[in-house]
Amino acid sequence: MSSSQTTLDFAHAARLLGREARRRGLVAPSFRCPPRIVGVQRSVRRHRTGAVVAVQLKGRPWLAVLADMIEGVVVANDLDPQRAARLRTDLWAAAGGESPEIVVDTPEAAPADVASKVA
Question: Strand 42-47 vs strand 30-32: parallel, antiparallel, or unpaired?
Fold first, then answer.
């Protein structure tokens, strides 16, 4: 994929994810590239009125970039694990992709005998 196409995809995804976040009553972060911190692929900066998610585009697969953008929306909204998992699934669907399977670590999800084996 060319860098100009990736930039266009990034801009389109930023608008889509922002719209979806606002539709759910969440903070719609701003998106930029690349991150200001050298060597990181994603950073999130919070401020009084929202957040800025910065993502590295160059040299990365598009799905990795999109995953970082989606995770940036989750982090910017400081969601509990179950709500975060639902939002990830919804944002992947809105973006036209399949959500990678995410396991939410809750007491109900763990088998009852795991705790006794650990102790």
Answer: unpaired
Q: What is the pTM of this model?
A: 0.78
DSSP result, 44-93: EEEETTEEEEEE--TTS-HHHHHHHHHHHHHHHHT--HHHHHHHHHHHHH
| 19's tokens | 């719209």
Query: 40 lies in which domain range?
Result: 3-118
Instruction: Give pLDDT tens digits along the chain (119 positions).
Output: 566 678 899 999 999 999 999 999 999 999 999 999 999 999 999 999 899 999 999 999 999 999 999 999 999 999 999 999 999 999 999 998 765 554 444 444 444 443 433 43
Q: List, in order, residues 6 or more apart from 16 with CB less than 8 Å away.
A: 94, 95
Instruction: Determine which helix (DSSP H) or strand (DSSP E) holds 3, and give its type and residue range.
Output: helix 3-23
SS3 7: helix
User: Rounded to an integer, what distance in angstroms lies between the CA atom of residue 115 and that of residue 99?
Assistant: 29
Indicate the number of domains in the chain.
Answer: 1
